[in-house]
Structures are given as C-alpha cells and as structure tokens.
Amino acid sequence: MGLLAVALLLCGSVDVVTLLVPELPGPSTVAPTPRLHLRFNPRTMTLSWNCEENSTSTRCLMVPDRNGPIEKTPRKNECSCTFQARPLHGGATFQVQIETSHRWFQERLLYENPGAEGTGAENFSCVIYEADFMNCTWEKGPAAPADIQYFLYIRDTKGRKERECPHYMRASGTHVGCHLDDLSAIPFWNYFLVNGSSRGPAIRFFDSVLSMKDMERHSPPANVTVHCNASDCLVGWRQPRTKQRLSPWDFQYQLDIQRQNVEPYIRNPLIDVAGDGRNQYCFPSPEPRAKHTVRVRAADARALQWSAWSQPVEFGARAPCEKKTT
C-alpha cells in the first residue's frame, strides 16, 4: 500500500473516531436553586429568608392547620413577611415564592408543635368580669405525666410585651388557671400561650388569640329603680362598667317584669330595650296595681352574651298578710 493510501486511511480513521466520541458538556446554563434558609419567629409571627438575588415578584404563604392559606406580599427589597397573630398549636406550613427575570422558585418550612400528643393543656378559656378582673382556666391533657406543670404567658399580638400569670390557680399542685386583678396592660387583642414542663416527655403547647369582646362578661345593670304614678311606672338603671370602651348604643337590655302571687306558669314575656343613653323603660300600670318585681340584664348588642340578672326590685301594693291557721 502506498504512503498516500496509508495517510488517507489514517485520516479516515481519525474522522470516524472523532464522530464516535460524545461531545463533552460545556458550562451549565441552569443555575442551582438558591437556599433561602427560611426562618420563622413565632413571637413576632415573622417569616424571613436570605436575600440572594433581585426578584421581580415575591409572595409569602401561611397555611395554618385545617384552615385556608393566608397570603402576604413583602415590601420592595424586604426579605420578610409578618402575619397576623393566630394559634400555632396545630402546626403550620410556610412558603416563599420568588420570581426573577429568568426563573421562578420556592421553598417551604414546616412549623410543628413538639411533644407527645395529649400532653398539652385543653379546654382553655378566659373571662373578664366586673371590668377589672380576668380568670383563665384550662385542663390537664389526658396523656400529661404526673409531674406536669403548666405556665401561662400573655402578650399583645404584635409580640412587644409579654408577662407570665401573676396568680396561678391549682388543682393537686398543678396550675389549671390564672387570676389577674390588674388589666391595665391588656389590649383589645391578646395572644395566650400555655406551655408545660416535665422530667419525662416533651409537653405540647396550647395557644389562642382572643379579643376583649370575646372574653368580657358584663355585670348586671346597677341601681335599678322603679317610680310609679297613677297610670304608669318608669324603670331606670345604670349602664354596666366595662373594660372595653362601649357607648350606650352598644348595649341591649332585657327586662323581666312579673306579677307576684300568681301561678308559676303564668309569666309575662321578657321585654327587649335597645340602649340609647337614657337607660329607662316606661310602661302603663294604672292604680290600683298588684305587687310586681322587675329585674334587668345587659348584653353587648353585637354579641348578645347576656349578663346575670340584677337583684329583683319590688313595686306595687303588697299582698295582704295571710291569716294564721290553727
């Protein structure tokens, strides 16, 4: 074989080898998804993340347990979202979705309630009464260990001020309630947290967000009076003191006016009176009139959670003395 033929054969072989070798990949054109490193502060209800690149659109999502998603949009160039305070004892999922000029990505964070199921406080409730006092109560969890101890913390929903219960109520040594006789630091909305400690398993926390409207129970109207003339009677009363600021028009009243010495099943219907600042009710009652009693109760007109009844006030002629039988 001549040299030229050998050279052509070799060249052909090189070309064949070159075609069979796969092309090596060049630099990647898909940048790796950045880690946002989501962080959640339950005290301030703030979700934050690392700002790694400019974004054209960002939104935050919070999905509480058994509730629909809550969406927030952060301000420009901010890498955090603050949600309105809400209970977290059922857990929550947080998500950040970011869009840039060339891509879209997201990251999730699961916030869980640590501890064994059934160890946290249950049946939690708070009541404000007589405008100056509040009681909160709860029950031990069914799986709580014998040495469980619970602690109550109250803070405003923005996480600025927090205090522990000053006076615990106990049952067999375990905290099952809290009494407060100073409500000066209680705002309209409050976040309540009951956590626990034990030498055994971790204890789940319980939390709740309650408004003053949810908690306040009105006292009965005070200073109930009855003034009668020959044809009418006028019932008057004083508006209950309240912790929340309520106008006279925020109240609804009910009057229970009953004649005495009649069959117990014969009762007059209750009388509804809208609050208007006058706090009185006039009704026809000509002389001679039998002995009657009147009592009054109050409610927030928006919630209609009735107070207890006031002490009954008597008016009208007294029943004649019964003859003694021998």
Characterization of the model:
This protein is mostly beta strands and 326 residues long. It folds into 3 domains: 39-111, Immunoglobulin-like; 122-216, Sandwich (Immunoglobulin-like); 218-315, Sandwich (Immunoglobulin-like). 7% of the residues lie in helices and 41% in strands. The chain has 2 helices and 23 strands. The protein has helices spanning 3-20, 212-215; strands at residues 39-41, 46-48, 57-64, 70-72, 80-82, 92-99, 104-111, 122-129, 133-139, 149-156, 162-164, 167-171, 174-180, 189-197, 206-211, 216-217, 222-228, 232-238, 251-259, 271-274, 280-284, 292-300, 313-315. Strand 14 (189-197) and strand 15 (206-211) form a beta hairpin. Mean pLDDT is 85; it is low at 1-30 and 319-326.
How are the elements arranged and paired?
Layout: H1 3-20, E1 39-41, E2 46-48, E3 57-64, E4 70-72, E5 80-82, E6 92-99, E7 104-111, E8 122-129, E9 133-139, E10 149-156, E11 162-164, E12 167-171, E13 174-180, E14 189-197, E15 206-211, H2 212-215, E16 216-217, E17 222-228, E18 232-238, E19 251-259, E20 271-274, E21 280-284, E22 292-300, E23 313-315
Parallel strand pairs: 8-16
Antiparallel strand pairs: 1-2, 2-5, 3-4, 3-6, 6-7, 8-9, 9-13, 10-11, 10-14, 12-13, 14-15, 17-18, 18-21, 19-20, 19-22, 22-23
Helical coverage, percent range: under 10%
Number of helices: 2
- Can you tell me the overall shape? elongated
| The CATH topology of the largest domain | Immunoglobulin-like
Quote the distance from N terminus to C terminus: 157 Å
Kindly estimate the percentage of residues that lie in beta strands according to DSSP. 35-45%
Radius of gyration based on Cα positions: 36 Å
Structural class label: mainly beta
What's the overall average pLDDT, rounded?
85
Q: Secondary-structure element sequence? A: HEEEEEEEEEEEEEEEHEEEEEEEE
Just name the CATH architecture of the largest domain. Sandwich
Count of extended strands:
23
Biggest sheet strand order reads 12-13-9-8-16
Number of domains: 3
Low-confidence stretches: 1-30, 319-326
CATH superfamily of the largest domain: Immunoglobulins
**CATH top-level class of the largest domain:** Mainly Beta
Largest sheet: 5 strands, mixed
